[in-house]
Specification:
Layout lengths: L4 H13 L8 H13 L3 E6 L3 E7 L10 E7 L27 H17 L6 E7 L7 H7 L2 H4 L4 E9 L6 E3 L3 E3 L1 E10 L3 E2 L9 H12 L1 H6 L6 E10 L5 E2 L2 E10 L2 H21 L3 E8 L4 E2 L2 H14 L2 E2 L12 H4 L4 E9 L19 H17 L3
Helix pairs in contact: 1-3, 3-11, 6-8, 9-11
C-alpha cells in the first residue's frame, strides 16, 4: 500500500537525527533495508560499499516485459556540526548532519517504492538505487565497479536533488547541463626557510602563495570565454609554524568547476602555468596536483522530456533555470546509461536554509511530490519506446 506523507516525514526525520557520514552509512542502509522488507520488496546490500539496490517487478514481471529503469537516491551526510537547537529531530551525531537533504532523497525513494508496489497498472522492472558516498566519496563509481548495471540491468536512470530558493514542490528540468564537472587542486611551493629578520637569506613560499592566489583569479576572467561558465576557488592556505620564521613550504588547495571538458583543460593548463611562473619569479619550486572529480551532469533529450512530462503530471514545472556550478556524483551513472536529473524546490533559502549550511533542514512538505515524480517517471520510461 502507499505510504502516507506523515510516515515519510517520520522516516526522513529519523534519518536526519541519525546521519551516516560519507563511507559510514551502515545505519542508514540498515534502515532502508528494513523499510523495504516491510513493503515486501526484495533488495541487496553492500554494493559499492553500503549501497542498496531494490527491485520491483510490475504486473506480470519479466514474463510480460523485459524493460527496466533505475531511480536513485543518495544516503550520506556531511561533516558539519548542525546549528538547529530548537529542531526536535536535529542530528544526534556530533559533527555530522544531513546538510544537503539526502535524508529527504532517501525517504522520497522509499515513498516511491511504496507507490510502485501498490500500483498494478505498469509493466517491467524498476531498480531502486540507494547510493552511498555521494559527497566526494566516489559512491557512484564504486557501485558501477561493483557491477551495478550488469547485476541490475536498467535502460535509463533518473534522480533528483532538492533545491533551496526554488518554490517548494516545483520540479525544474534542464535541457542539457544541470550541474558542473569539478576538479580539486593542490599547489605546493617549496622555498628556503630562515629567520624572519633576515629575509634576503630565504626564498619565501608565503610570497609565492600570495601572488598565486591573486593570479589564479585571472584564469576565469581572462582565459575563459565570457559566454562560458567556470569557477576557480582557493579554499585552503597552509604555511608556517613560528612567527619569527620564513617557512620552508606553503600549500594552496581549492576547486575548479566547469560545464565543458575543454574549459576544464584550459583551467588546468592555466593553473600549472601560473604556479610555474610564480615559482620562477620568486626562486621557488612548485608542485601541482590536479584531480578531476565528477563529470558534467547533463540530461539526455529523450529522458529530459520524460522527466518533464512526469513532472507536469504531479506538480508545476520549470524549464528555464540555468545550471548550477555544484557537482553531482549522479554524473557517473549518466556515463553508463541515458538518464535525467531534476531539481525539486525546497522553498525559501532564507535563514541559512541553503545547501551545506549548518542551519539547513529538508522541507518535508515536498516529499509527496518527490515520491510521486519518481514513480511517475519510472512508469513513463517503461512505457516509452526503447
Amino acid at each position: 500500500m502507499a505510504i502516507s506523507p506523515d510516515e515519510m516525514t517520520r522516516w526522513r526525520r529519523h534519518l536526519h537525527a541519525h546521519p551516516g557520514l560519507t563511507l559510514h552509512e551502515e545505519e542508514t542502509a540498515a534502515f532502508v533495508l528494513q523499510r523495504l522488507r516491510e513493503m515486501g520488496i526484495e533488495a541487496e546490500s553492500g554494493i559499492g560499499g553500503h549501497g542498496v539496490v531494490a527491485t520491483i517487478h510490475g504486473r506480470g514481471g519479466d514474463r510480460l516485459s523485459n524493460r527496466s529503469v533505475g531511480l536513485r537516491a543518495d544516503m550520506d551526510a556531511l561533516p558539519i556540526q548542525e546549528i538547529n537547537p530548537d529542531l526536535p529531530h536535529r542530528s544526534a551525531v556530533p559533527g555530522v548532519m544531513h546538510a544537503c537533504g539526502h535524508d529527504g532523497h532517501t525517504a522520497a525513494l522509499l515513498g516511491a517504492a511504496a507507490l510502485l508496489k501498490a500500483d498494478p497498472a505498469w509493466f517491467g522492472t524498476v531498480r531502486l538505487v540507494f547510493q552511498p558516498a555521494e559527497e566526494g566519496g566516489g559512491g557512484a563509481k564504486a557501485m558501477i565497479e561493483d557491477g551495478l548495471f550488469t547485476r541490475f540491468p536498467m535502460e535509463r536512470i533518473f534522480g533528483w536533488h532538492n533545491w533551496p530558493g526554488l518554490e517548494a514542490g516545483t520540479v525544474a528540468v534542464h535541457d542539457g547541463p544541470v550541474m558542473a564537472a569539478g576538479a580539486r587542486f593542490e599547489i605546493a611551493f617549496e622555498g628556503h626557510a630562515g629567520h624572519a629578520a633576515l629575509p634576503h637569506l630565504t626564498r619565501d613560499p608565503m610570497l609565492g602563495a600570495g601572488h598565486c592566489i591573486v593570479a589564479l583569479q585571472s584564469l576565469v576572467s581572462r582565459n575563459v570565454d565570457p559566454l562560458d561558465s567556470a569557477v576557480v576557488s582557493v579554499t585552503v592556505a597552509e604555511a608556517g609554524e613560528a612567527q619569527n620564521q620564513v617557512p620552508q613550504r606553503s600549500v594552496l588547495k581549492g576547486t575548479m568547476r566547469f560545464l565543458r571538458d575543454a574549459t576544464g583543460d584550459a583551467l588546468e593548463g592555466g593553473l600549472r602555468r601560473v604556479a610555474d611562473g610564480v615559482a620562477a619569479t620568486y626562486g621557488l619550486s612548485a608542485a601541482v596536483d590536479v584531480r578531476r572529480g565528477v563529470a558534467v551532469t547533463a540530461n539526455r533529450p529523450a529522458e529530459r522530456d520524460l522527466a518533464a512530462e512526469a513532472a507536469g503530471a504531479v506538480s508545476a514545472v520549470r524549464r528555464d533555470l540555468p545550471p548550477a556550478m555544484t557537482g553531482e556524483d549522479f554524473s557517473w551513472f549518466l556515463q553508463e546509461v541515458p538518464g535525467a536529473f531534476a531539481w525539486i524546490g525546497n522553498g525559501s533559502a532564507e535563514g541559512g536554509r541553503e545547501l551545506h549550511n549548518p542551519r539547513y533542514d529538508f522541507n518535508d512538505a515536498i516529499l509527496p511530490v518527490a515520491s510521486a515524480w519518481l514513480a511517475e517517471v519510472a512508469k513513463r520510461a517503461l512505457a516509452a519506446p526503447g
